[in-house]
Give the backbone structure.
Amino acid sequence: MDPASRLNVLKHIYSVYETFAATVPSACRRGCAHCCTRNVTLTTLEGCHIVSHLSAIREADLFDRLSFALERRRFQPRITTNELADICLQGQDPPQEETESGETRCPLLEKEECAIYPVRPFHCRCMTSRTDCGETGCADMDPFVMTVNTVFLQYIEHIDASGFSGNLIDAVLFLQPEENRRRCTSGAPVARPPGLIPNRRVSALMIPPKHRQRIAPLLQKLNASP
């Protein structure tokens, strides 16, 4: 699949999810930034989409903010979503992921709003809570929504199977040079960038039996040509 086609598929996935999300009860609102941390992860395909947007609007200062954030601890995943699915299929225990706590404000926040909102990655799009996180200290997400989110993450990783995943800060800064974006979007061999991990194709979707019938219409929409 050529780069333009993969980007179109990504936008299609985003659109299908946006329609679904509109049906989900949520306490989230504009200006609510409790979940906006520097621990967000994404694929390099999503990263290229973000970098192209930043370059088009000439927001060089946002790259500077990300560079400054490199000095701080952040979540860097050890396995991707599709790798987790493979591990579960094999009946093995996944490795422990190290989480980051404390002050983790996203460097791309401006007055409690996202500076890249139109091209924000899926991990930001799918984060929702039925109750106010500011009051409870954690998100309250419906189990079916969690299943949907996982499946969408699997699809996004699948269409970027030749790319990588990792923390938004690491991925976007790696992709800032045009040559790195060209190599990632063309599918050309790329040495593993620092802090990022290789993506995988889907071998099985992580859908609990109780959610299979309910999620079927969404899968049909995902598989439809964008």
Observations:
- Residues 3-21 form the longest helix (19 residues).
- The chain has one domain: 3-223.
